[in-house]
Task: inverse folding
């Protein structure tokens, strides 16, 4: 099953050593936010390194529908002429966010405190995902939402005409919910407070400060208390989007499991709210050198030199690390299959409400590849088979999920027999150059 278009089968087979430099595209989270915050500023925001994946293009189209002028100037180079906080106009048509939970949830937050209505939809994956987690706090501002059973899209949000500020403790560790509340708080008078028990990616906080909002973060016994002063005038910015650590995960993990590999992945974020996978891989015995640490686009980054690591051991991944590597569990479970012993991933039930139920998708696909798996609602355990022990030889279902597709294609590069995926088209949402980039390193990936 594919999103809006035709399914595109892909396959991968055992590859020779991966060598060279893997320059992965711009960060998806920061790309969405640069368009949305740019639309909230008065004047021209200039963006370089924007991820031109379908998720982000859908957010660009949405910002145009709400009245901002969004222009592509060249590869990854975009300008946004914003309408100011509270300046969104009512869109003439339904807003289609495609596959993107980040897009739809952040945009719902942004319009929820402006007196306009908007109807949102998405592809078959997004239409299954819960929106109540954002519309519940948005209703505290005075917004109303009318969707399908279970808070599903399509959904109409009626923005509050007289919004009130909100104090909200996040019931789930979700940067999307946190960001939706902060974005709604931008157009509410007074102070909006969001409290998160476990820290999640902090790009919205960093970027809001950069765009001129008054925002403070205090660490207390309750967790991080984030206070935003409403109704600021946001100043346009120059945003250099850093590379995406969640995309970098795929060439990094491929190099770790393909014998003889030695690659360089430059500019990978070491932001503590995003780097959980890299800490975990090092604990498992991965040979990764963190070279040339520096700051790029307001984020701490390093160049990663990654070599084949034939002696990785499974570990218990600390559950409190989950928010900092939430999108990386699928590809970690592939590395775990090529390691020795058990890798235990607990506290991961959020994976069940991503682009697909990622625990189920990985468990079924890895089992089909001959790997022993245990799972429950909140846990995934992979029994490693060592660097040359994974049989492969299966076609795995990707369930309209880019990260599931890329994870199984990585698996096939080191498995004994070819691994196919039923539909690789969702890779377009986050990593449009995945195939040529991986094949440029020496991988054997084919479409069709
Ligand atoms: C994101 C937050 C995470 C992550 C998603 C991007 C963001 O989702 O899985 O890919 O940009 O805020 P949750 O907020 O649902 O954890």
Result:
């Amino acid at each position: 099953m594919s999103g809006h278009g035709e399914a595109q089968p892909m396959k991968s087979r055992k590859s020779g050593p991966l060598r060279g430099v893997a320059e992965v595209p711009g960060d998806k989270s920061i790309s969405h936010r640069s368009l949305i915050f740019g639309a909230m500023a008065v004047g021209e925001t200039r963006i370089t390194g924007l991820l031109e994946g379908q998720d982000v293009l859908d957010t660009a189209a949405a910002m145009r529908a709400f009245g901002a002028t969004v222009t592509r100037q060249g590869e990854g180079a975009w300008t946004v002429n914003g309408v100011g906080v509270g300046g969104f106009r009512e869109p003439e048509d339904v807003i289609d966010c495609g596959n993107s939970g980040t897009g739809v949830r952040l945009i719902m937050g942004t319009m929820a405190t402006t007196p306009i209505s908007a109807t949102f939809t998405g592809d078959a994956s997004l239409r299954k995902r819960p929106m109540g987690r954002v519309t519940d706090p948005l209703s505290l501002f005075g917004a109303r939402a009318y969707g399908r059973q279970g808070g599903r899209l399509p959904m109409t949000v009626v923005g509050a005409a007289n919004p009130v500020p909100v104090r909200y403790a996040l019931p789930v560790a979700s940067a999307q919910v946190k960001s939706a509340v902060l974005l709604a708080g931008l157009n509410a008078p007074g102070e909006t407070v969001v409290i998160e028990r476990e820290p999640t990616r902090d790009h919205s906080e960093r970027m809001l400060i950069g765009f001129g909002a008054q925002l403070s973060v205090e660490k207390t016994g309750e967790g991080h208390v984030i206070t935003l002063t409403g109704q600021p005038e946001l100043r346009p910015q120059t945003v250099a989007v850093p590379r995406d650590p969640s995309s970098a995960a795929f060439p990094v993990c491929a190099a770790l499991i393909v014998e003889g590999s030695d690659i360089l992945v430059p500019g990978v974020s070491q932001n503590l709210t995003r780097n959980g996978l890299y800490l975990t891989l090092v604990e498992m015995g991965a040979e990764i050198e963190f070279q040339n640490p520096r700051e790029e686009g307001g984020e701490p980054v390093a160049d990663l030199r990654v070599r084949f690591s034939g002696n990785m051991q499974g570990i218990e991944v600390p559950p409190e690390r989950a928010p900092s590597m939430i999108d990386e569990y699928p590809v970690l479970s592939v590395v775990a299959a090529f390691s020795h012993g058990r890798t235990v991933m607990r506290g991961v039930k959020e994976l069940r409400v991503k682009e697909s139920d990622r625990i189920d998708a990985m468990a079924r696909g890895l089992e089909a590849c001959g790997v022993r798996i245990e799972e429950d609602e909140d846990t995934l355990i992979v029994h490693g088979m060592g660097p040359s022990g994974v049989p492969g030889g299966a076609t795995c279902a990707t369930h309209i999920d880019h990260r599931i597709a890329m994870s199984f294609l990585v698996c096939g590069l080191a498995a004994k027999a070819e691994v196919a995926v039923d539909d690789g088209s969702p890779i377009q949402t986050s990593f449009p150059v995945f195939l040529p980039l991986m094949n440029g390193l020496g991988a054997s990936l084919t479409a069709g």
Q: What stands out?
A: The longest helix spans residues 28-40. The first strand starts at residue 10 and ends at 13. DSSP finds twelve helices and 24 strands in the chain. The pocket of shikimate-3-phosphate is lined by residues 29, 102, 174-176, 179, 201, 326-327, 350 (CB under 6 Å).
